[in-house]
Design brief:
InterPro entries: DPCD. Pfam families: DPCD (PF14913). It comes from Leptocylindrus danicus. This is Protein DPCD. The chain is mostly beta strands. It folds into 2 domains: 45 residues, no CATH class; 111 residues, Sandwich (Immunoglobulin-like). It is 15% helix and 42% strand. The protein contains 2 helices and 13 strands. The strands form 4 sheets. A 4-stranded antiparallel beta sheet has the order 1-2-3-4, with no helix packed on it. A 4-stranded antiparallel beta sheet has the order 7-8-13-12, with no helix packed on it. Strand 12 and strand 13 form a beta hairpin. The chain is globular.
Amino acid sequence: ENIEEWSSKSSSNKELRPETMELLLRKWRGPDKMGRIGNWEYEVSQPIHHAASNQEEIGSDIISINKNENPIWSSEWTPSHLLWKATNSVWPFENYSVTVVDDAQQTLVVRSKNKKLFKKIQIPALARIHEKLNDSAVDLEYNSKLKCLTILYKKSEAVLKQEEEEKMRVIQAYQRLR
C-alpha cells in the first residue's frame, strides 16, 4: 500500500512507495479563471486513462500502442533524475532536440527538426527552491524499438536535499498515524 499525503489548503496530493519512499505521484489543482475548481495538474506521473489501450508485444516487451499519432507524455522521478517520457515518438533520434529557455518561467523546450513536435516543460520542483535550470543537467535518450523519447534532468544537490527533508516529514507524519 502506498503512502498518500493530501493538502486541502492547496488541493494537492502526493503518493510515495513506502519501501523506498520513491515519489510516485504529485498533483495539485486550484481555482480556474472563473473561480471553479480547476483540472488536476500533474508534476509527477500522469492522469490515468480508463479507455482500453491496444497492446502489442515487441520482443520481450509489451507496450501500449496509441493509434493517435501524437506523443503521450508522462513524468517520473528517479533517485538521480527528473524525467519525462514521450511515447509514440515516431521520428529518428536525430530529429529531436531539447533546449533550456532562460526566462522567468524556467522552461525546457523539446522540439523536432521537422516541426511536428513542440513541447514546453516547466519544473515546479526547481521553482519551489528558486533554482535556475542548468544546460549541462539535460540529456535526451531514445528507444526506437518502443518509440519512446526520454528527457532527463539530473537533480542538483539542492533538489536532493529538499527531497530528503520532504521524505522525513512524510515518514514522521506516517509514524504518528500508526
